[in-house]
Amino acid sequence: MIDTHIHLDDERYRDDLDTVLEHAKEGGVNKFVIPGADPKTLERAIEIAESYEEVYFAVGVHPYDMQNFENLEFEKYVHHGKCVAIGECGLDYFRLEGSDEEKELEKQRQKEVFIAQIELAKKYKKPLIVHIRDASRDSKELLLKHNAGEVGGVLHCYNADDELLSLANEGFYFGIGGVVTFKNAKKLVNVLGKIPQEKLLVETDGPYLTPTPHRGERNEPLYTTLVAQKMADLLEIPYENMENITTNNALNLFDIS
Ligand SMILES: [Zn+2]
Ligand SMILES: [Zn+2]
User: Fold this and answer.
1) What is the SS3 assignment for 34?
2) How far is the CA of 233 from the centre of ligand 2 (A)?
3) Nearest 5°: phi and psi at 176?
4) Phi, psi of 31 (to 5 degrees)
5) CA 7 to centroid of ligand 1, rounded, Å
């Protein structure tokens, strides 16, 4: 199985990365994709991808780290043999601050940086890892307007908004993570069956969003299995099928073998 979104470059994995990956592999999770978020940790992501055959990375800038976008030399990373995607990029209106005017400016800035990364994805023919929080309508509009379907991608940590479902027809996959195991995940639980199975991906987003019953602890790639198990239960299909379906989907999307 593949953990399609795991921040192994986070310092919380620095001391025991070997063990973390070993545990994951023992549990059947044997490939990992590190999304780009803050360019400051990108070198660490590459170092990990170069040290571990089963680790891949993406280059991109998270909406919370946009101030570093201009200084990031995409060309330097995008041609690396282990670079499988552009992102995570997108729109996140969850913690906008200040006056209405300031909020509007921040949104505009996020959109510019997102559009720039959609264009880079098309230029380098890499799929997108898209982060959307409280910004479904604007995100969808930009993805469609800028023909992101040319390369497709994953709506990581899919927020369960119905209006994003049609992006399945534009080459987009839906990354399901630990949230699906939460007691209050009704919306996601209800929408899960509406996602075409050939568009389902599993992720942890570790070290964040730790699934039940480990909430409060650091998230681990091993817990990809807990997410997949919950998805299999909800969709009433055998675990092995869920494993096969989501693994094949991830291999297709990221073009890895
Ligand atoms: Zn994210
Ligand atoms: Zn993330």
Assistant:
1) strand
2) 25
3) -105, 130
4) -140, 150
5) 10
